[in-house]
């Protein structure tokens, strides 16, 4: 059997399972992490406090995990943009839904969309300055994978002041694959 066909079938099954998880009725998962997750996604969708502009800033391939020939030819300027909506909960934590498209390592367009959450700290007397740690869960698609939807669950970190936030993630991987730092600016309006 063709390897590409098998990979597509596996990815399609994973994508289908991911979509089914998002539509499980809330009463089927009461008082669980999953009901909290779906409740936060729903509230962020239905009651956004802000809209967000996303501007990709940098992708960096960890030099310890790549051959120099590969990093020399990879794109590390992820031109693109995105849009989202977000809210701050009663604990001061950030919740966001987003859709972004950017130029990937091969200089091909890569869309990504999903939900992000960050526990937020305000360590200074000035409430405008904040630090955040959390995660994002969503879907992406890449040219080198024939634009098959791929589920992602990645860490998030940020530093922000007022309406501007520098947000980032790290895509883990193996040698010559993954191990990429990706960061963007998020402007809230």
TrEMBL record:
Transfers a fatty acid residue from the sn-1 position of a phospholipid to the N-linked hydroxyfatty acid chain on the proximal unit of lipid A or its precursors. Homodimer. Belongs to the lipid A palmitoyltransferase family. Its EC number is 2.3.1.251. Keywords: Acyltransferase, Cell outer membrane, Membrane, Signal, Transferase. It comes from the Bacteria. This is Lipid A acyltransferase PagP. The record marks 70 as: Role in lipopolysaccharide recognition. GO terms for biological process: lipid A biosynthetic process.
């Amino acid at each position: 059997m063709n390897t590409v066909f098998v990979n597509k079938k596996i990815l399609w099954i994973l994508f289908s399972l991911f979509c089914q998880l998002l539509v499980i009725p809330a009463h089927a998962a009461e008082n669980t992490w999953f009901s909290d997750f779906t409740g936060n996604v729903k509230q962020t969708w239905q009651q956004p406090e802000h809209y967000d502009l996303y501007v990709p800033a940098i992708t960096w391939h960890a030099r310890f995990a790549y051959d120099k020939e590969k990093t020399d030819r990879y794109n590390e300027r992820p031109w693109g943009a995105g849009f989202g909506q977000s809210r701050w909960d009663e604990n001061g934590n950030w919740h966001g839904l987003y859709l972004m498209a950017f130029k990937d390592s091969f200089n091909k367009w890569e869309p990504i969309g999903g939900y992000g959450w960050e526990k937020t700290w305000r360590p200074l007397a000035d409430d405008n300055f904040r630090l955040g740690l959390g995660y994002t869960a969503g879907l992406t698609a890449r040219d080198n994978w024939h634009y098959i939807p791929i589920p992602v669950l990645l860490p998030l970190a940020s530093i922000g002041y007022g309406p501007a936030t520098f947000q980032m993630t790290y895509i883990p991987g193996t040698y010559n694959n993954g191990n990429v730092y990706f960061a963007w600016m998020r402007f809230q309006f």
